[in-house]
Amino acid sequence: MLKEYKRKRNFSHTPEPAGKKQAAGAQLRFVVQRHEATRLHYDFRLELDGVLKSWAVPKGPSMNPADKRLAVHVEDHPVDYIDFKGTIPAGNYGAGKVEVWDHGQYIAVDADLEPVSEKEALQALKKGELKFFLKGNKISGGFVLVRLHGDDKNWLLIKHKDEYASNKKFEPDPRDKKGYTRAKAAPEKPLKPEYPEPEGKEAEKKAVAAGVEKTAVKRAASKNAAAKKTVRKVLKKAAAKKASATTAAGKQTAAKKAKPKKATAASATRKKAAAKKAAAKSGSRKSAARSTRPSNR
Fold first, then answer.
1. What is the pLDDT along the chain (297 residues), one digit of tens a residue?
2. 3-class DSSP state for residue 144?
3. Which residue spans within the chain are E strands per DSSP?
4. Cα end-to-end distance, the chain, whole Å
5. Phi/psi at 155 (nearest 5 deg)?
6. Environment class of residue 36 by beta-carbon count within 10 Å: exposed (0-12), middle (13-18) or buried (19+)?
7. Do residues 254 and 247 make contact, with C-beta atoms less than 8 angstroms apart?
8. What is the Cα–Cα distance from 131 to 119, expressed in whole angstroms?
9. How many other CB atoms are there within 10 angstroms of residue 124's CB atom?
Protein backbone atom coordinates (compact mmCIF):
# COMPACT_ATOMS: atom_id res chain seq x y z
CA MET A 1 0.00 0.00 0.00
CA LEU A 2 2.98 2.32 0.59
CA LYS A 3 5.00 0.86 -2.29
CA GLU A 4 4.51 3.88 -4.57
CA TYR A 5 5.30 6.30 -1.73
CA LYS A 6 8.60 4.54 -1.00
CA ARG A 7 9.49 4.14 -4.67
CA LYS A 8 9.46 7.91 -5.17
CA ARG A 9 11.73 8.74 -2.19
CA ASN A 10 15.27 8.22 -1.07
CA PHE A 11 15.01 8.35 2.71
CA SER A 12 18.73 8.94 3.15
CA HIS A 13 18.22 12.28 1.36
CA THR A 14 14.84 13.41 2.70
CA PRO A 15 13.56 13.96 6.26
CA GLU A 16 10.18 12.46 5.36
CA PRO A 17 9.21 9.38 7.42
CA ALA A 18 9.55 5.96 5.77
CA GLY A 19 6.72 4.73 7.95
CA LYS A 20 4.61 1.61 7.64
CA LYS A 21 0.96 0.65 7.65
CA GLN A 22 -0.51 0.76 11.16
CA ALA A 23 -3.86 0.26 12.84
CA ALA A 24 -5.96 3.35 13.52
CA GLY A 25 -6.62 4.60 17.03
CA ALA A 26 -9.97 5.15 18.69
CA GLN A 27 -10.56 8.27 16.57
CA LEU A 28 -9.63 8.80 12.93
CA ARG A 29 -7.49 11.88 12.21
CA PHE A 30 -6.90 14.27 9.34
CA VAL A 31 -4.22 16.79 8.42
CA VAL A 32 -3.86 19.61 5.89
CA GLN A 33 -0.27 20.51 4.99
CA ARG A 34 0.73 23.65 3.11
CA HIS A 35 3.34 22.55 0.60
CA GLU A 36 5.58 25.02 -1.23
CA ALA A 37 6.70 22.59 -3.92
CA THR A 38 7.12 23.37 -7.63
CA ARG A 39 3.51 24.47 -7.41
CA LEU A 40 2.05 25.77 -4.16
CA HIS A 41 -0.73 23.46 -3.00
CA TYR A 42 -2.32 21.98 0.11
CA ASP A 43 -2.10 18.27 0.89
CA PHE A 44 -5.36 16.98 2.35
CA ARG A 45 -4.95 13.65 4.14
CA LEU A 46 -7.42 11.33 5.90
CA GLU A 47 -6.32 8.48 8.16
CA LEU A 48 -8.00 5.36 6.78
CA ASP A 49 -7.15 1.67 6.46
CA GLY A 50 -3.80 2.09 8.24
CA VAL A 51 -2.47 4.84 5.95
CA LEU A 52 -3.14 8.47 5.02
CA LYS A 53 -5.38 8.69 1.95
CA SER A 54 -4.07 11.82 0.22
CA TRP A 55 -5.15 14.51 -2.23
CA ALA A 56 -3.28 17.58 -3.51
CA VAL A 57 -5.64 20.59 -3.44
CA PRO A 58 -4.14 23.46 -5.54
CA LYS A 59 -6.27 26.20 -3.96
CA GLY A 60 -6.60 24.58 -0.56
CA PRO A 61 -9.82 23.59 1.23
CA SER A 62 -12.62 26.14 1.54
CA MET A 63 -15.35 26.79 4.11
CA ASN A 64 -17.59 28.23 1.39
CA PRO A 65 -20.01 25.61 -0.07
CA ALA A 66 -19.97 27.50 -3.37
CA ASP A 67 -16.30 26.58 -3.87
CA LYS A 68 -15.69 23.26 -5.60
CA ARG A 69 -12.00 22.60 -4.96
CA LEU A 70 -10.15 20.37 -7.37
CA ALA A 71 -8.39 17.60 -5.39
CA VAL A 72 -5.84 15.44 -7.22
CA HIS A 73 -5.65 11.94 -5.73
CA VAL A 74 -2.05 10.91 -5.00
CA GLU A 75 -0.29 7.92 -3.46
CA ASP A 76 -1.05 6.82 0.11
CA HIS A 77 1.28 8.23 2.78
CA PRO A 78 2.29 6.59 6.08
CA VAL A 79 0.35 7.62 9.19
CA ASP A 80 3.62 9.04 10.62
CA TYR A 81 3.41 11.74 7.93
CA ILE A 82 0.50 13.33 9.83
CA ASP A 83 2.96 15.31 11.99
CA PHE A 84 5.56 15.97 9.32
CA LYS A 85 6.82 19.51 8.78
CA GLY A 86 10.12 20.77 7.43
CA THR A 87 11.93 21.27 4.15
CA ILE A 88 12.38 18.55 1.57
CA PRO A 89 15.81 19.24 0.01
CA ALA A 90 16.16 20.31 -3.61
CA GLY A 91 16.61 17.40 -5.99
CA ASN A 92 14.16 15.23 -4.07
CA TYR A 93 10.61 14.39 -5.03
CA GLY A 94 8.33 17.19 -3.78
CA ALA A 95 11.22 19.48 -2.80
CA GLY A 96 10.10 22.49 -0.83
CA LYS A 97 8.77 23.64 2.52
CA VAL A 98 6.02 21.65 4.24
CA GLU A 99 4.07 22.93 7.25
CA VAL A 100 1.01 21.70 9.12
CA TRP A 101 -1.78 24.13 8.21
CA ASP A 102 -4.54 22.36 10.16
CA HIS A 103 -5.17 19.02 11.84
CA GLY A 104 -7.74 17.29 13.98
CA GLN A 105 -10.19 14.43 14.02
CA TYR A 106 -12.89 13.39 11.59
CA ILE A 107 -15.97 11.18 11.48
CA ALA A 108 -17.05 9.42 8.28
CA VAL A 109 -20.82 9.50 7.69
CA ASP A 110 -23.37 8.05 5.27
CA ALA A 111 -25.93 9.80 3.04
CA ASP A 112 -28.18 10.38 6.08
CA LEU A 113 -25.20 11.88 7.98
CA GLU A 114 -25.07 8.93 10.36
CA PRO A 115 -21.58 7.79 11.51
CA VAL A 116 -20.17 4.77 9.69
CA SER A 117 -17.37 2.33 10.42
CA GLU A 118 -13.87 2.61 8.97
CA LYS A 119 -14.65 -0.33 6.68
CA GLU A 120 -17.82 1.37 5.37
CA ALA A 121 -15.87 4.61 4.87
CA LEU A 122 -13.29 2.75 2.78
CA GLN A 123 -16.07 1.21 0.66
CA ALA A 124 -17.63 4.66 0.13
CA LEU A 125 -14.24 6.00 -0.96
CA LYS A 126 -13.84 3.17 -3.48
CA LYS A 127 -17.30 3.99 -4.88
CA GLY A 128 -16.20 7.60 -5.39
CA GLU A 129 -18.03 9.59 -2.74
CA LEU A 130 -17.04 10.01 0.90
CA LYS A 131 -18.86 12.28 3.33
CA PHE A 132 -17.30 13.25 6.66
CA PHE A 133 -17.27 15.77 9.51
CA LEU A 134 -14.01 17.51 10.39
CA LYS A 135 -13.06 18.79 13.84
CA GLY A 136 -10.13 21.09 13.16
CA ASN A 137 -8.90 24.53 14.16
CA LYS A 138 -9.36 26.23 10.77
CA ILE A 139 -11.82 23.97 8.99
CA SER A 140 -14.75 22.18 10.61
CA GLY A 141 -18.13 20.69 9.81
CA GLY A 142 -19.38 18.56 6.96
CA PHE A 143 -17.44 17.94 3.74
CA VAL A 144 -17.62 15.55 0.82
CA LEU A 145 -15.01 14.17 -1.55
CA VAL A 146 -16.49 13.30 -4.95
CA ARG A 147 -14.61 11.56 -7.74
CA LEU A 148 -15.23 13.03 -11.18
CA HIS A 149 -17.03 10.70 -13.57
CA GLY A 150 -14.64 8.56 -15.56
CA ASP A 151 -11.57 10.04 -13.86
CA ASP A 152 -9.82 8.15 -11.03
CA LYS A 153 -7.31 10.90 -10.31
CA ASN A 154 -9.37 14.10 -10.15
CA TRP A 155 -11.83 14.63 -7.30
CA LEU A 156 -13.68 17.59 -5.80
CA LEU A 157 -13.53 18.66 -2.16
CA ILE A 158 -16.76 20.47 -1.23
CA LYS A 159 -17.99 22.04 2.00
CA HIS A 160 -21.50 21.14 3.09
CA LYS A 161 -23.98 23.84 4.09
CA ASP A 162 -24.08 23.81 7.89
CA GLU A 163 -23.51 26.07 10.89
CA TYR A 164 -19.75 26.11 10.18
CA ALA A 165 -20.08 27.18 6.54
CA SER A 166 -19.27 30.67 5.27
CA ASN A 167 -20.60 32.51 2.22
CA LYS A 168 -17.54 34.77 2.08
CA LYS A 169 -14.50 34.30 -0.13
CA PHE A 170 -12.21 31.85 1.65
CA GLU A 171 -8.42 32.18 1.43
CA PRO A 172 -6.51 29.46 3.29
CA ASP A 173 -3.45 31.63 3.88
CA PRO A 174 -2.74 35.34 3.20
CA ARG A 175 0.74 34.38 1.98
CA ASP A 176 -0.81 32.60 -1.00
CA LYS A 177 -1.56 35.98 -2.63
CA LYS A 178 2.02 37.18 -2.23
CA GLY A 179 3.60 34.00 -3.54
CA TYR A 180 6.66 32.28 -2.08
CA THR A 181 10.26 31.42 -2.85
CA ARG A 182 10.40 28.19 -4.82
CA ALA A 183 12.97 25.54 -4.08
CA LYS A 184 15.68 25.45 -6.75
CA ALA A 185 16.51 22.14 -8.34
CA ALA A 186 20.05 20.83 -8.61
CA PRO A 187 21.31 21.25 -12.20
CA GLU A 188 22.10 17.56 -12.63
CA LYS A 189 18.70 16.44 -11.39
CA PRO A 190 15.79 18.74 -12.31
CA LEU A 191 12.87 18.84 -9.95
CA LYS A 192 9.76 16.97 -10.89
CA PRO A 193 6.37 18.48 -10.04
CA GLU A 194 5.18 17.24 -6.67
CA TYR A 195 1.83 16.24 -8.13
CA PRO A 196 0.91 16.08 -11.81
CA GLU A 197 -1.83 18.50 -12.79
CA PRO A 198 -2.67 17.51 -16.37
CA GLU A 199 -5.84 19.56 -16.46
CA GLY A 200 -4.94 22.31 -13.96
CA LYS A 201 -7.40 25.19 -13.91
CA GLU A 202 -9.10 23.88 -17.02
CA ALA A 203 -10.01 20.66 -15.20
CA GLU A 204 -11.44 22.65 -12.33
CA LYS A 205 -13.55 24.82 -14.66
CA LYS A 206 -14.59 21.78 -16.64
CA ALA A 207 -15.60 19.96 -13.47
CA VAL A 208 -17.72 22.86 -12.27
CA ALA A 209 -19.30 23.38 -15.69
CA ALA A 210 -20.07 19.68 -16.08
CA GLY A 211 -22.06 19.70 -12.87
CA VAL A 212 -20.41 19.15 -9.56
CA GLU A 213 -21.23 16.44 -7.09
CA LYS A 214 -23.47 14.56 -9.49
CA THR A 215 -24.45 11.85 -7.03
CA ALA A 216 -25.47 14.35 -4.38
CA VAL A 217 -27.42 16.44 -6.90
CA LYS A 218 -29.28 13.37 -8.17
CA ARG A 219 -30.10 12.30 -4.62
CA ALA A 220 -31.31 15.77 -3.72
CA ALA A 221 -33.44 15.92 -6.89
CA SER A 222 -34.91 12.53 -6.11
CA LYS A 223 -35.77 13.54 -2.56
CA ASN A 224 -37.21 16.82 -3.78
CA ALA A 225 -39.36 15.04 -6.37
CA ALA A 226 -40.58 12.56 -3.75
CA ALA A 227 -41.42 15.42 -1.39
CA LYS A 228 -43.32 17.27 -4.14
CA LYS A 229 -45.20 14.07 -4.99
CA THR A 230 -46.18 13.61 -1.35
CA VAL A 231 -47.32 17.23 -1.09
CA ARG A 232 -49.40 16.86 -4.26
CA LYS A 233 -50.92 13.67 -2.87
CA VAL A 234 -51.83 15.34 0.41
CA LEU A 235 -53.28 18.38 -1.36
CA LYS A 236 -55.27 16.13 -3.69
CA LYS A 237 -56.70 14.21 -0.74
CA ALA A 238 -57.54 17.46 1.07
CA ALA A 239 -59.25 18.85 -2.05
CA ALA A 240 -61.26 15.63 -2.52
CA LYS A 241 -62.28 15.67 1.14
CA LYS A 242 -63.33 19.30 0.87
CA ALA A 243 -65.29 18.62 -2.32
CA SER A 244 -67.01 15.65 -0.70
CA ALA A 245 -67.91 17.75 2.32
CA THR A 246 -69.23 20.54 0.07
CA THR A 247 -71.35 18.06 -1.93
CA ALA A 248 -72.78 16.53 1.23
CA ALA A 249 -73.57 19.95 2.63
CA GLY A 250 -75.26 20.94 -0.66
CA LYS A 251 -77.42 17.84 -0.61
CA GLN A 252 -78.47 18.50 2.99
CA THR A 253 -79.37 22.11 2.13
CA ALA A 254 -81.34 21.00 -0.93
CA ALA A 255 -83.15 18.41 1.13
CA LYS A 256 -84.05 21.00 3.75
CA LYS A 257 -85.34 23.36 1.09
CA ALA A 258 -87.31 20.58 -0.62
CA LYS A 259 -89.14 19.46 2.56
CA PRO A 260 -91.15 22.70 3.11
CA LYS A 261 -92.16 22.68 -0.57
CA LYS A 262 -93.43 19.13 -0.29
CA ALA A 263 -95.20 19.96 2.96
CA THR A 264 -96.81 23.07 1.41
CA ALA A 265 -98.03 21.11 -1.62
CA ALA A 266 -99.52 18.38 0.57
CA SER A 267 -101.22 20.94 2.77
CA ALA A 268 -102.73 22.69 -0.28
CA THR A 269 -104.02 19.38 -1.59
CA ARG A 270 -105.57 18.56 1.77
CA LYS A 271 -107.22 21.99 1.96
CA LYS A 272 -108.61 21.65 -1.58
CA ALA A 273 -110.01 18.21 -0.75
CA ALA A 274 -111.60 19.51 2.44
CA ALA A 275 -113.13 22.46 0.53
CA LYS A 276 -114.64 20.09 -2.07
CA LYS A 277 -115.98 17.90 0.69
CA ALA A 278 -117.47 20.88 2.48
CA ALA A 279 -119.03 22.15 -0.78
CA ALA A 280 -120.49 18.73 -1.45
CA LYS A 281 -122.08 18.58 1.99
CA SER A 282 -123.46 22.07 1.59
CA GLY A 283 -124.98 21.13 -1.77
CA SER A 284 -126.66 18.02 -0.41
CA ARG A 285 -128.17 20.01 2.47
CA LYS A 286 -129.64 22.55 0.10
CA SER A 287 -131.17 19.79 -2.05
CA ALA A 288 -132.69 18.13 1.01
CA ALA A 289 -134.16 21.40 2.14
CA ARG A 290 -135.78 22.04 -1.24
CA SER A 291 -137.30 18.58 -1.33
CA THR A 292 -138.91 18.91 2.11
CA ARG A 293 -140.33 22.41 1.52
CA PRO A 294 -144.31 22.31 1.20
CA SER A 295 -145.84 23.23 -2.07
CA ASN A 296 -148.17 26.33 -2.23
CA ARG A 297 -150.45 24.69 -4.68
1. 799 999 999 999 999 999 888 877 779 999 999 999 989 999 999 999 999 999 999 999 999 999 999 999 999 999 999 999 999 999 999 999 999 999 999 999 999 999 999 999 999 999 999 999 999 999 999 999 999 988 889 999 999 999 999 998 888 877 776 554 444 444 434 334 344 444 455 555 555 555 555 555 555 555 555 545 554 555 565 556 556 666 766 667 666 665 555 556 666 777 777 777 777 766 666 565 555 555 554
2. strand
3. 29-36, 40-48, 51-57, 68-77, 86-88, 96-109, 129-135, 140-147, 154-159
4. 153
5. -125, 175
6. buried
7. no
8. 14
9. 20
- Which of 155, 166, 161 is closest to 215 using CA atoms? 155
Strand pairing class (40-48; 51-57):
antiparallel
CB-facing half-sphere around the CA of 14: CA atoms within 13 A: 24
Calculate the alpha carbon distances from 81 to 18, 60, 107, 204, 219 in Å: 9, 18, 20, 27, 36
CB-based contacts of 117, cutoff 8 Å, min separation 6: 108
Q: Are 84 and 17 in contact (CB under 8 A)?
A: yes
Torsion angle, CA of 150/152/154/160, rounded to 10 degrees? 90
Question: In whole angstroms, how far apart are CA 49 and each of 24, 76, 122, 162?
Answer: 7, 10, 7, 28
* Torsion over CA: 115, 117, 121, 123 (sign): negative
| DSSP class of 132 | E
What is the model's pTM?
0.61
